[in-house]
Amino acid sequence: MFITLLAHAEVVVISGVYQGKDVYVKNPTTSSGVGYCIFEVLVNNQITSDEVNSSAFAIDLGAWGLKLGDAVEVVLRCKEKCDVKIINPEVIYPNSTFEITGMQVNTTGVLNWTTKAESAMLPFIIEQFKWNRWIKVGETMGQGKSDSNEYSFQASLHSGSNTFRVYQIDHKGQRTSQEVKVDNPASAVTINKTTISNSLDFSAETDYEIYSEYGSLVKAGRGQKVDTTKFFKGKYYVSFDNKGGQIIEKK
Hints:
Strand content: over 45%
CATH architecture of the largest domain: Sandwich
Order of helices and strands: EEEEEEEEEEEEEEEEEEEE
Number of helices: 0
Radius of gyration: 26 Å
CATH superfamily of the largest domain: Immunoglobulins
Number of domains: 3
Low-confidence stretches: 1-8
């Protein structure tokens, strides 16, 4: 969540980043009907001079010399527990605005990308396409600078063609980069024996996922040997290297 809202309390707190707009507040009367609930407003721990003695008022964030993307916290102090309403909290939600200026992945699996026009520090999620779907393989915090930002991530390559992308999520949804690809000439990984007892052995180290015949994820990780002593007897489906759903059987 990009906002903390403690309603029905003596203090209401909203936090986010400055986006160049004011915050509007609906200010109810007290339970006695005399006066309004909110009596003081703070922006980043500083008391504002905003007029709060009305049923609705604006908090002028621009008066504090904030730059776009700066962190902002607004505290509303109330005389009692009351239904204070933030009319437009989305104006301080962090927005994903990044533009990719360069993106590539090399043959050792190092993914590099550069951006501009970031306006908030939001995490970048790194995904790799394998086993017929996009899989999260990493995460790194965005720098949030409007000029140039540089990022690097060490990924694990499977044999054959590897495809990557990055994305951020804000209150509007997912903002995704273009895809980049690299070929890995390494030999394809294989399963040594499809009928197993105490272990599942691959021909080389690989990422893997093992599902029961009913579709439940049993085990996932990376390695060349998987301990299967606690597996129940029956069929399993293994995704590994660039292959998905190979059948093995535990005896």
